[in-house]
Amino acid sequence: MHRERNLPPAALVDELGIKIMRMSSERHELGRTYLDSLTLIYKDIFKEHVDIGRPWNVTESGNDIYEVHSPSSHDVDLMQMTCTCQRYKVSGFPCAHATATITLKGAEILMYIHPYFGSNHFRNSYTPAIRPIPNFDRPEVYKPEDIVFPGTPRPAPGSPSKKRIRGAYEKERRPMKFSNCKKIGNHNKATRRQLLLE
């Protein structure tokens, strides 16, 4: 990709188009080799989840609701495709807890997996061919002045912020009253002594 950075815009579009066409064609051929209902990657992940959940005990509650006794207990609702670990709902692919319940039920895997992970969805995504874009009407050699370079970044207006940005899970420190000086601030006995010396 480093070589493409120095190309003019029209030539860069041509190079990217060729790469996308090649990738789409390769995946179209790969999709023809899929004989199972799941793609190879997700078939391996499902098997891995089955192995993880094999030693766990599963209790059926009814209406496709189960309790999985892994190191911690989790509730799985196969109809709603949810688990209390939240992985099933977020990804659409059964977590190890859900996989344990599907295995116990002996149901068809695809009934409880989002169609996105199926081999049919993969094949359909790469069935349409990406048409080439002819460039017979463009120059074969570009002049140096035809190359467009990125602009020079400018600093944001105003003075830079001096306040440190806290992390997402970092709590704001609560100001405390020091017992000796009765002043509010974030200091202790050692730092108070330094403040007095300053």
Describe what you observe in this structure.
The protein is of the alpha+beta class. A hairpin with a 2-residue loop joins strand 1 and strand 2. The model has no long low-confidence stretch (mean pLDDT 80).
Short précis:
This protein has 198 residues and is of the alpha+beta class. The protein has helices at residues 9-33, 40-53, 87-91, 96-105, 119-125, 189-197, and strands at 57-62, 65-69, 73-77, 82-83, 176-177, 184-185. Strands 1-2-3-4 form a 4-stranded antiparallel sheet. It has a two-stranded antiparallel sheet with strand order 5-6.
List its traits.
single chain; 198 residues; alpha+beta; four-stranded antiparallel β-sheet; two-stranded antiparallel sheet; 6 helices; 35% helix; 11% strand; flat
SSE order and pairing:
Blueprint: H1 9-33, H2 40-53, E1 57-62, E2 65-69, E3 73-77, E4 82-83, H3 87-91, H4 96-105, H5 119-125, E5 176-177, E6 184-185, H6 189-197
Antiparallel strand pairs: 1-2, 2-3, 3-4, 5-6
Helix pairs in contact: 1-5, 2-4
What sort of overall outline do the alpha carbons produce when their principal axes are compared? flat
Q: Summarize the helix and strand pattern as letters.
A: HHEEEEHHHEEH
Rg over C-alpha atoms, rounded to the nearest angstrom: 30 Å
Question: What is the β-strand count?
Answer: 6
Tell me the β content: 5-15%
Overall pLDDT: 80
The N- and C-terminal alpha carbons lie at a distance of 56 Å
Give, in spatial order, the strands making up the sheet with the most strands.
1-2-3-4
Number of helices: 6
Helix content: 25-40%
